[in-house]
Amino acid sequence: MTHVMVKGSNIQLDAPGIRAVLRWSSGPGAPDVDASMLLLGPDGRVRSDTDFVFYNEPRHPSGLARHLPKTRVAEGLTDTVEVDLAALDADVHRIVIAASCDGGPFRLVQDLCVLLYDTTGPQRAPIVTFEVRPDTGHETALICGELYRKGDGWKFRALGQGYATGLIGLATEYGITVDDVEGGDSDRTAVPAATAPPTVAPAVAAAADPGPTSAYGYPLQAPASGHVPAQPAYGYPQPVAGPVMPAAAPAVPPVHQQPQQGYPAYGYPQPVAAAASAPADPSFTLPPQGPQFQPQR
Protein backbone atom coordinates (compact mmCIF):
# COMPACT_ATOMS: atom_id res chain seq x y z
CA MET A 1 0.00 0.00 0.00
CA THR A 2 1.32 3.44 -0.97
CA HIS A 3 0.99 6.33 1.50
CA VAL A 4 0.48 9.74 -0.11
CA MET A 5 2.06 12.29 2.22
CA VAL A 6 1.73 16.04 2.65
CA LYS A 7 4.27 18.54 3.90
CA GLY A 8 5.02 18.09 7.60
CA SER A 9 3.51 14.60 7.93
CA ASN A 10 5.49 11.51 9.03
CA ILE A 11 5.19 7.76 8.80
CA GLN A 12 6.75 4.73 10.44
CA LEU A 13 9.00 2.65 8.19
CA ASP A 14 9.37 -1.11 8.57
CA ALA A 15 11.84 -1.59 5.71
CA PRO A 16 15.50 -2.40 6.59
CA GLY A 17 16.63 -0.34 3.60
CA ILE A 18 15.14 2.60 1.69
CA ARG A 19 15.57 3.68 -1.91
CA ALA A 20 14.57 7.35 -2.40
CA VAL A 21 13.74 8.23 -6.00
CA LEU A 22 13.37 11.82 -7.20
CA ARG A 23 11.16 12.07 -10.27
CA TRP A 24 10.30 15.09 -12.43
CA SER A 25 9.06 15.94 -15.91
CA SER A 26 11.68 16.93 -18.43
CA GLY A 27 11.05 19.61 -21.04
CA PRO A 28 12.50 22.63 -22.85
CA GLY A 29 14.13 25.05 -20.41
CA ALA A 30 13.75 22.71 -17.43
CA PRO A 31 16.90 22.53 -15.24
CA ASP A 32 18.54 19.24 -14.36
CA VAL A 33 17.81 17.83 -10.89
CA ASP A 34 20.27 15.89 -8.68
CA ALA A 35 19.50 13.78 -5.63
CA SER A 36 21.80 13.70 -2.60
CA MET A 37 21.89 12.32 0.94
CA LEU A 38 23.49 13.55 4.19
CA LEU A 39 24.11 11.26 7.17
CA LEU A 40 23.88 13.33 10.37
CA GLY A 41 25.13 12.64 13.87
CA PRO A 42 23.52 13.48 17.23
CA ASP A 43 24.37 17.18 16.83
CA GLY A 44 22.51 17.45 13.53
CA ARG A 45 25.69 17.79 11.47
CA VAL A 46 27.78 15.39 9.41
CA ARG A 47 30.49 13.51 11.25
CA SER A 48 32.88 14.12 8.33
CA ASP A 49 32.67 15.23 4.71
CA THR A 50 32.31 11.58 3.65
CA ASP A 51 28.78 11.59 5.13
CA PHE A 52 27.65 13.59 2.09
CA VAL A 53 26.63 11.21 -0.73
CA PHE A 54 25.98 12.90 -4.09
CA TYR A 55 27.02 12.78 -7.74
CA ASN A 56 30.70 13.62 -7.02
CA GLU A 57 30.91 11.16 -4.08
CA PRO A 58 28.42 8.44 -5.07
CA ARG A 59 29.34 5.92 -2.39
CA HIS A 60 29.77 6.25 1.38
CA PRO A 61 33.01 4.65 2.74
CA SER A 62 30.87 2.16 4.66
CA GLY A 63 29.07 1.13 1.48
CA LEU A 64 25.72 1.57 3.26
CA ALA A 65 24.65 4.73 1.40
CA ARG A 66 24.85 5.15 -2.39
CA HIS A 67 23.94 7.48 -5.25
CA LEU A 68 22.65 5.66 -8.36
CA PRO A 69 22.72 6.79 -12.01
CA LYS A 70 19.87 8.80 -13.51
CA THR A 71 17.19 6.96 -15.44
CA ARG A 72 14.55 7.98 -17.97
CA VAL A 73 11.06 6.59 -17.28
CA ALA A 74 7.63 7.10 -18.82
CA GLU A 75 6.83 9.95 -16.41
CA GLY A 76 10.12 11.81 -17.00
CA LEU A 77 13.55 11.53 -15.35
CA THR A 78 14.67 10.03 -12.04
CA ASP A 79 17.69 10.34 -9.78
CA THR A 80 18.11 7.94 -6.88
CA VAL A 81 19.87 7.51 -3.52
CA GLU A 82 19.54 4.52 -1.21
CA VAL A 83 20.62 3.56 2.31
CA ASP A 84 20.71 0.38 4.40
CA LEU A 85 19.03 1.62 7.59
CA ALA A 86 19.36 -1.57 9.63
CA ALA A 87 23.14 -1.71 9.20
CA LEU A 88 23.98 1.95 9.94
CA ASP A 89 26.15 2.97 12.89
CA ALA A 90 24.24 3.92 16.01
CA ASP A 91 25.66 7.47 15.90
CA VAL A 92 23.79 8.21 12.64
CA HIS A 93 20.59 9.74 13.97
CA ARG A 94 19.12 11.35 10.86
CA ILE A 95 19.41 11.18 7.07
CA VAL A 96 18.50 14.16 4.88
CA ILE A 97 17.17 13.43 1.38
CA ALA A 98 17.83 16.50 -0.75
CA ALA A 99 17.42 17.74 -4.32
CA SER A 100 19.35 20.45 -6.16
CA CYS A 101 18.93 21.85 -9.64
CA ASP A 102 21.44 23.24 -12.08
CA GLY A 103 20.41 25.81 -14.68
CA GLY A 104 17.54 27.53 -12.90
CA PRO A 105 15.31 27.56 -9.81
CA PHE A 106 12.80 24.90 -8.87
CA ARG A 107 9.85 26.90 -10.21
CA LEU A 108 11.04 25.69 -13.64
CA VAL A 109 10.88 22.03 -12.54
CA GLN A 110 7.54 20.38 -13.17
CA ASP A 111 5.96 17.47 -11.27
CA LEU A 112 8.78 17.00 -8.75
CA CYS A 113 8.07 14.21 -6.29
CA VAL A 114 9.94 11.78 -4.05
CA LEU A 115 9.09 8.09 -3.90
CA LEU A 116 10.35 5.70 -1.19
CA TYR A 117 10.83 2.00 -1.96
CA ASP A 118 11.81 -0.94 0.23
CA THR A 119 15.18 -2.12 -1.06
CA THR A 120 14.37 -5.72 -0.04
CA GLY A 121 10.82 -5.89 -1.39
CA PRO A 122 9.14 -5.75 -4.81
CA GLN A 123 9.62 -2.51 -6.75
CA ARG A 124 6.18 -2.42 -8.30
CA ALA A 125 4.70 0.21 -5.95
CA PRO A 126 6.43 2.69 -3.62
CA ILE A 127 5.87 2.75 0.14
CA VAL A 128 5.54 6.54 0.18
CA THR A 129 4.96 9.30 -2.39
CA PHE A 130 5.35 12.99 -1.63
CA GLU A 131 4.78 15.78 -4.15
CA VAL A 132 7.46 18.38 -3.43
CA ARG A 133 6.36 21.97 -3.92
CA PRO A 134 8.82 24.81 -3.22
CA ASP A 135 7.56 27.69 -1.09
CA THR A 136 8.75 30.58 -3.29
CA GLY A 137 9.97 28.99 -6.52
CA HIS A 138 13.36 30.71 -6.21
CA GLU A 139 14.94 27.77 -4.40
CA THR A 140 17.84 25.95 -6.06
CA ALA A 141 18.08 23.25 -3.36
CA LEU A 142 15.37 21.47 -1.41
CA ILE A 143 15.22 19.14 1.57
CA CYS A 144 12.58 16.77 0.27
CA GLY A 145 12.36 14.82 3.50
CA GLU A 146 14.32 13.12 6.25
CA LEU A 147 14.70 9.67 7.74
CA TYR A 148 15.13 9.75 11.51
CA ARG A 149 15.39 7.26 14.34
CA LYS A 150 12.36 6.68 16.53
CA GLY A 151 12.92 4.11 19.24
CA ASP A 152 14.28 0.95 17.61
CA GLY A 153 13.02 1.89 14.14
CA TRP A 154 13.00 4.64 11.57
CA LYS A 155 10.43 7.17 10.41
CA PHE A 156 10.15 9.46 7.39
CA ARG A 157 9.03 13.11 7.56
CA ALA A 158 7.97 15.02 4.41
CA LEU A 159 9.49 18.52 4.42
CA GLY A 160 10.03 20.49 1.19
CA GLN A 161 12.26 23.11 2.86
CA GLY A 162 14.19 25.20 0.32
CA TYR A 163 17.46 27.08 -0.07
CA ALA A 164 18.23 29.81 -2.60
CA THR A 165 21.99 29.13 -2.27
CA GLY A 166 22.00 25.81 -4.09
CA LEU A 167 23.75 22.60 -3.14
CA ILE A 168 26.66 24.50 -1.56
CA GLY A 169 24.36 26.42 0.78
CA LEU A 170 22.56 23.24 1.80
CA ALA A 171 25.79 21.29 2.36
CA THR A 172 27.49 24.00 4.44
CA GLU A 173 24.37 24.20 6.59
CA TYR A 174 25.22 20.69 7.82
CA GLY A 175 28.97 21.17 8.19
CA ILE A 176 30.32 20.16 4.76
CA THR A 177 33.49 21.83 3.49
CA VAL A 178 32.59 23.85 0.41
CA ASP A 179 35.70 22.79 -1.55
CA ASP A 180 34.58 19.18 -1.40
CA VAL A 181 31.15 20.06 -2.78
CA GLU A 182 32.72 21.93 -5.68
CA GLY A 183 34.90 19.01 -6.66
CA GLY A 184 38.03 19.27 -4.53
CA ASP A 185 41.18 21.33 -4.79
CA SER A 186 41.71 20.43 -8.45
CA ASP A 187 38.79 22.65 -9.44
CA ARG A 188 39.91 25.63 -7.46
CA THR A 189 41.53 28.61 -9.15
CA ALA A 190 44.77 29.71 -7.54
CA VAL A 191 44.73 33.24 -6.22
CA PRO A 192 47.87 35.17 -7.26
CA ALA A 193 50.05 36.18 -4.36
CA ALA A 194 50.22 39.84 -3.49
CA THR A 195 53.26 41.50 -5.10
CA ALA A 196 55.43 44.11 -3.44
CA PRO A 197 55.34 47.66 -4.89
CA PRO A 198 58.06 48.36 -7.50
CA THR A 199 61.32 49.75 -6.20
CA VAL A 200 62.04 53.33 -7.35
CA ALA A 201 65.66 54.42 -7.83
CA PRO A 202 66.76 57.24 -5.43
CA ALA A 203 67.49 59.66 -8.29
CA VAL A 204 64.11 59.03 -9.87
CA ALA A 205 62.38 59.30 -6.49
CA ALA A 206 64.10 62.64 -5.81
CA ALA A 207 63.07 63.98 -9.19
CA ALA A 208 59.52 62.79 -8.72
CA ASP A 209 59.23 64.33 -5.26
CA PRO A 210 59.12 68.15 -5.51
CA GLY A 211 59.33 68.54 -1.74
CA PRO A 212 56.98 70.59 0.41
CA THR A 213 54.43 72.67 -1.42
CA SER A 214 52.09 75.49 -0.46
CA ALA A 215 48.32 75.35 -0.50
CA TYR A 216 48.50 76.61 -4.11
CA GLY A 217 50.75 73.75 -5.23
CA TYR A 218 53.96 75.87 -5.60
CA PRO A 219 57.18 74.46 -4.08
CA LEU A 220 58.34 76.19 -0.92
CA GLN A 221 61.87 77.45 -0.47
CA ALA A 222 63.79 75.66 2.25
CA PRO A 223 64.79 77.91 5.19
CA ALA A 224 68.39 79.02 5.56
CA SER A 225 70.67 76.94 7.73
CA GLY A 226 70.15 77.61 11.43
CA HIS A 227 66.93 79.51 10.85
CA VAL A 228 64.05 78.48 13.11
CA PRO A 229 60.58 79.44 11.92
CA ALA A 230 58.72 81.77 14.23
CA GLN A 231 56.48 80.03 16.74
CA PRO A 232 53.28 81.75 17.86
CA ALA A 233 51.65 81.33 21.24
CA TYR A 234 51.01 77.87 22.67
CA GLY A 235 53.75 76.34 20.53
CA TYR A 236 51.69 75.74 17.40
CA PRO A 237 53.77 76.07 14.22
CA GLN A 238 53.52 79.25 12.22
CA PRO A 239 51.83 78.75 8.86
CA VAL A 240 54.29 79.02 5.99
CA ALA A 241 53.46 82.00 3.83
CA GLY A 242 52.68 81.21 0.23
CA PRO A 243 54.23 82.99 -2.75
CA VAL A 244 53.26 86.58 -3.49
CA MET A 245 50.50 86.47 -6.00
CA PRO A 246 50.16 89.24 -8.62
CA ALA A 247 47.50 91.81 -7.94
CA ALA A 248 44.27 90.83 -9.50
CA ALA A 249 42.74 93.09 -12.11
CA PRO A 250 39.81 95.13 -10.81
CA ALA A 251 36.69 93.15 -11.07
CA VAL A 252 34.14 94.37 -13.55
CA PRO A 253 30.63 93.84 -12.25
CA PRO A 254 28.31 91.88 -14.46
CA VAL A 255 26.14 93.83 -16.83
CA HIS A 256 23.03 93.22 -14.75
CA GLN A 257 24.84 94.72 -11.69
CA GLN A 258 26.27 97.83 -13.42
CA PRO A 259 24.43 101.07 -12.47
CA GLN A 260 22.28 102.38 -15.27
CA GLN A 261 22.18 106.01 -16.31
CA GLY A 262 19.49 107.91 -14.53
CA TYR A 263 18.83 105.29 -11.90
CA PRO A 264 20.27 105.34 -8.38
CA ALA A 265 20.84 102.27 -6.19
CA TYR A 266 18.17 99.61 -5.80
CA GLY A 267 16.69 100.44 -9.21
CA TYR A 268 14.32 103.22 -8.13
CA PRO A 269 13.75 105.87 -10.88
CA GLN A 270 15.74 109.12 -10.71
CA PRO A 271 13.64 112.29 -10.17
CA VAL A 272 13.33 114.27 -13.41
CA ALA A 273 15.27 117.57 -13.29
CA ALA A 274 13.27 120.79 -13.81
CA ALA A 275 13.64 122.58 -17.12
CA ALA A 276 15.92 125.66 -17.19
CA SER A 277 13.97 128.92 -16.48
CA ALA A 278 13.88 131.94 -18.81
CA PRO A 279 15.90 135.16 -17.94
CA ALA A 280 14.26 137.39 -15.30
CA ASP A 281 12.12 140.35 -16.51
CA PRO A 282 13.75 143.63 -15.23
CA SER A 283 10.35 145.35 -15.13
CA PHE A 284 8.92 142.76 -12.72
CA THR A 285 8.28 144.09 -9.18
CA LEU A 286 6.86 142.45 -6.12
CA PRO A 287 3.33 143.40 -5.11
CA PRO A 288 2.87 145.78 -2.20
CA GLN A 289 3.81 144.24 1.12
CA GLY A 290 1.52 144.13 4.10
CA PRO A 291 1.61 146.86 6.71
CA GLN A 292 4.08 144.98 8.78
CA PHE A 293 6.59 145.27 5.99
CA GLN A 294 5.98 149.01 5.20
CA PRO A 295 8.52 151.52 6.56
CA GLN A 296 7.30 153.49 9.63
CA ARG A 297 7.04 157.27 9.26
The strand count comes to 12
**Succession of helices and strands:** EEEEEEEEEEEEHHH
Note the gap between the termini: 158 Å
Tell me about the largest β-sheet: 6 strands, mixed
Spans of 5+ residues with little confidence (pLDDT < 50)? 182-210, 222-236
The helix content is under 10%
Task: Explain what you see.
The protein has 297 residues and is mainly beta. The chain has helices at residues 166-173, 178-181, 202-208, and strands at residues 3-5, 10-13, 17-25, 32-40, 52-53, 65-73, 76-84, 94-102, 110-118, 128-131, 141-150, 153-163. The strands form two sheets. Strands 1-10-9-3-7-6 form a six-stranded mixed beta sheet, with no helix packed on it. The protein has a six-stranded antiparallel beta sheet with strand order 2-12-11-8-4-5. A hairpin with a 2-residue loop joins β11 and β12 (153-163). The N and C termini lie far apart (158 Å). The model is unreliable at 182-210 and 222-236 (pLDDT under 50).
Give the topology:
Elements: E1 3-5, E2 10-13, E3 17-25, E4 32-40, E5 52-53, E6 65-73, E7 76-84, E8 94-102, E9 110-118, E10 128-131, E11 141-150, E12 153-163, H1 166-173, H2 178-181, H3 202-208
Parallel strand pairs: 1-10
Antiparallel strand pairs: 2-12, 3-7, 3-9, 4-5, 4-8, 6-7, 8-11, 9-10, 11-12
